[in-house]
Amino acid sequence: NCLSFINGNKFTRVALQFPDNLLCDSVYIYRELNNLISNNKVELYILGDTSYGNCCVDETAASHAQCDSIIHFGSACLTRNSKLPVLYVFGRETFDISRTVDSIKNTLKSDEIDTSRSNIVIIYDLVYYHIISNIVEMLKQTFQVILAQPNLPSDHIVFPQQETTTNIVEGRLLTNSWIINGEINDFTVFLYVGEEKVSLTHYGLILNSNRVYCYDPNANKCTLLPSNKLLNKRFYLVERIKDSRIIGILIGTLSHGDNVSMMSELKHHIKMAGKKSYTFVVGKLNEPKLYNFMEIDLFVLIGCPWQSILDSKDWMKPIVTPYELMVALNPCRSWTSSYEVELSQLLPGGKGYMKQPLEGYSTLESDVSLISGSSRSTAWGNKDDDINQHGKELILRTEALQLSKLDDSGGSYLNEKRSWKGLEPDVGETPVELAVEGETGIANSYESEIKQCE
Q1: What's the pLDDT at 388?
Q2: Which of 182, 172, 311, 119 minimizes the C-alpha distance to 234?
Q3: DSSP count for the chain of H helices, then E strands
Q4: Is 97 in contact with 105 (CB distance < 8 Å)?
Q5: pLDDT digits (tens, 9 = 90+) for 18-33
Q6: Among 7, 80, 432, 451, whose Cα sits 20 to 30 Å from the Cα of 214?
């Protein structure tokens, strides 16, 4: 497949992207491909440290080597790429099919699934795509089974901006045989075949009105996902958004085709709600990066569905999804059982898009925070100057009966409260000096130090 992908499309600079657990095999695969390629003009590059998650196609790293295509190895979220054609190589893993079918049957029967009314929709980790059809055929003897195919052409090659049918479950192209009037049948049961991992969370949220089971082949265990518990956790974050004043927008990937449009949409929501926003391009997310911005109340992450839903207890500040921010700030939205993680569905034209209030609409109301129990103001459509003016008119009285000015809302924390604000140019205050030659060598043995020792 890799050879036909390269030769058939006449690519000359191909990036090989591996997940962290397969980097140990990358050199071997590189050498094998290099030996099989007859065209000497073809150059292969290994992306040793991807900028984002392993599941996302890293077009940014590939562009550094001026590559014209990417071969992505390992599990993938299948988000739409924006620039380069991609060949997906998922790999192959096997398990005992008979044992798997018996475990699934026993679990579904013990939960009294109505086989006459319920469809079993199977979603699977793509490392099992070569044997999943065998499981489906065996389960069809007892249940009405539908297989959710990957949102990919049969050759697993995706070109930029390639049109696909609307997804029902993100990352998987599902048929419509269990859908009634555009909605998923309540009697439909979803079964995910694969290891329990973070990508499973968004299936439980999106399909919270249905039963969602997960079968782990390694543990030979089939369990029911607690969708209500997941929704309660996310509703708590919606309340945290309403209590916040400064929101950080984290760009988790530059390869996603809708990240720029989503960033503009979020900035507009935050501005119209009378809050301040700052944008950060972070790549792979980790806690030390966020520790640099203690003034931010919470962050909203723009990334693929597999990477955007994070457990806030693992982070110093809450990290929410674009959908949750829109629910919290848009007066036309309300919290319901529906949930959306695919960015394209939250933009104009998507099934999860909700129009904002008409131009000229504005409000400045108050309600009670469900977290702190204190009163808070909610605004939409008010200009920043008007909101800031309300803050300037307020005066705090301390316990010592002294008056102090209340800080203006917004970015005064970032501009005034920090002890270190970066390098100060001091223009006109320092003499101009000619450039001088600096040290040469490496840090532990500069040439000048070596000469002194001699």
Answers
A1: 44
A2: 311
A3: 15, 24
A4: no
A5: 988 888 899 999 999 9
A6: 80
373's tokens: 């129990």
Residue 397, classed as helix, strand or coil, is strand
State the pTM of this model.
Answer: 0.74
User: Where are the extended beta strands (E) located within 252-314?
Assistant: 276-281, 298-302
Which residue type occupies 98? S
User: What are the angstrom distances between the C-alpha of 288 and each of 69, 253, 317, 321?
Assistant: 33, 18, 12, 20
Q: Which residues pair with 70 in a beta bridge?
A: 15, 86
Question: Per DSSP, what are the bridge partners of residue 149?
Answer: 173
Sign of CA dihedral 15, 75, 199, 196: negative
CA distances from 431 to 244, 345, 426, 428, 434 (A): 45, 57, 10, 8, 10
Q: Measuring CA to CA, how many Å separate 359 from each of 129, 264, 271, 327, 328?
A: 49, 17, 14, 19, 19
Residues 6+ apart with CB under 8 A from 362: 379, 380, 381, 382
pLDDT in tens, 133-172: 888 889 888 888 888 877 777 778 787 765 544 444 545 6
CB within 8 Å of 33: residues ≥ 6 apart: 2, 3, 16, 44
Which residue has tokens 């003499």?
431
- The string of pLDDT tens digits covering residues 252-302 is 776 666 788 889 999 988 988 888 999 988 877 888 888 888 889 999 998
Q: What are the two backbone dihedrals, phi and then psi, of residue 19, each rounded to the nearest 5 degrees?
A: -70, 165
Q: Tokens 């409260």, residue?
A: 417
Q: Is 339 exposed, middle or buried (0-12, 13-18, 19+ CB in 10 A)?
A: buried
Neighbour count for residue 423 (Cβ, 10 Å)? 6
- Closest C-alpha among 68, 55, 132 to residue 100: 132
Q: Which parts of the chain sit beneath pLDDT 70?
A: 115-117, 161-187, 198-199, 254-257, 357-366, 370, 375, 377-423, 425, 451-454
